[in-house]
Amino acid sequence: RLALALLLLPPGGLGKPTARQERARPGAAQHEDRPGFQYDHEAFLGKEEARSFDQLSPEESRERLGKIVDRIDDNKDGYLTTEELKNWIKRVQKRYIYENVAKVWKDYDLNKDNKIAWEEYKQATYGYYL
């Protein structure tokens, strides 16, 4: 758990400062995330969950992260393995793909017959160009 927490939380347990909410404690050193951190957060948490984490206080982030870590620990031994972490990321990404397909499907299935014909695809994709 500690390794995962260190991966996701910056030094000192401070959250990433955001435009909406300043999370650094007074007098604490500011932390700069490495480039690509948002991609890592999205891969680990999912896009929507990553966005919600950006708005939490450090205490709320730790609490929610602890609950997520417990869900990742498949064998409930109190430790995360590389395999458990890989499996978690695969589950999160698969869920994101299914949700994204469901959202986009509505835009492409113009006649609402639960099928996407080539003409519907072209219309939805290129629409006003045709």
TrEMBL record:
One of its GO terms (cellular component) is endoplasmic reticulum. Residues 12-37 are annotated as: Disordered. It comes from the Eukaryota. Residues 60-95 form the EF-hand domain. InterPro entries: EF-hand-dom_pair, EF_Hand_1_Ca_BS, EF_hand_dom. It is found in: Endoplasmic reticulum. The keyword Ligase does not apply. Pfam families: EF-hand_7. Keywords: Calcium, Endoplasmic reticulum, Metal-binding, Repeat, Signal. The keyword Repeat applies. GO terms for molecular function: calcium ion binding. Residues 1-15 form the signal peptide. Residues 19-37 have a biased composition (Basic and acidic residues). Belongs to the CREC family. This is Reticulocalbin-1. It comes from Eudyptes chrysocome (Western rockhopper penguin). The lineage of its organism: Eukaryota, Metazoa, Chordata, Craniata, Vertebrata. The gene is Rcn1.
